[in-house]
Amino acid sequence: xxxxxxGSVLQAADRGARRFGEYRAMMDGISDRLLSxxxxxxxxxxxxxxxxxxxxxxxxxxxxxxxxRSLVEALQPLAE
Length: 80
What we know:
This protein is an alpha+beta fold. 54% of the residues lie in helices and 15% in strands.
């Protein structure tokens, strides 16, 4: 959790970002590569859930997992 941009990715998820482009739009300054890396790390840690929608073209959606939501709520006083 202490890595750069991790908190911002979780906060964007909590604010409604679902697709990669929505995350990019909510976070100025993060590269595509770094955003992809943070999403994978958060998924591995159980903070973000990833869903693949199999149609043409394939869509990938993300949403905060229950643990991710709890973490955002706990960190909210620090963000304010």
